[in-house]
């Protein structure tokens, strides 16, 4: 398994298209490409609420914080893969359901099953990325 496994609808929608670009950039380790997808006032909440990546649960706001989030997550991984089973677009948002598999440098993997919501602005830049997954549930998949 590698990259992005898209099992959902292929129907184009600005938010769906942005989410797919985001996943491809992450899966291929293209940090600059990923960061360029976000608006200047974007917020990343992954996961939503307090976590080891965001202790106060307020999200990663703006380019510097989103860059730091990459370093703590994608930058620390050997590989990140996405399996998206379904995708629901409405208005300026899309909610994708599936699993993000992160492989650590020691070969250990963890699966975060959840709902991944992207909101875009009028230019197609990501204004909000909200990932709904449960840390304890994901930690139960360590293997």
Tell me about this structure.
The protein is of the alpha/beta class and 143 residues long. It has one domain: Nuclear Transport Factor 2, Chain: A (Roll), CATH 3.10.450.50. It has helices spanning 14-27, 31-35, 62-72, 135-139, and strands at 4-6, 38-45, 60-61, 79-90, 93-103, 109-120, 126-132. The chain has a 7-stranded mixed beta sheet with strand order 1-4-5-6-7-2-3. The model has no long low-confidence stretch (mean pLDDT 96).
Radius of gyration: 14 Å
Structural class: alpha/beta
The global form is globular
In order across it, which strands form the biggest sheet? 1-4-5-6-7-2-3
The major β-sheet equals: 7 strands, mixed
Low-confidence stretches: none
Number of structural domains: 1
Q: Count of helices? A: 4
The CATH architecture can be given as Roll
Tell me the CATH topology: Nuclear Transport Factor 2, Chain: A
- H/E topology pattern: EHHEEHEEEEH
Number of strands: 7
Mean pLDDT across residues: 96
Supply the CATH class.
Answer: Alpha Beta
Strand content: 35-45%
**C-alpha end-to-end distance:** 16 Å
Helix fraction, binned, reads: 10-25%
Summed up:
The protein has 143 residues and is an alpha/beta fold. It has helices spanning 14-27, 31-35, 62-72, 135-139, and strands at residues 4-6, 38-45, 60-61, 79-90, 93-103, 109-120, 126-132.
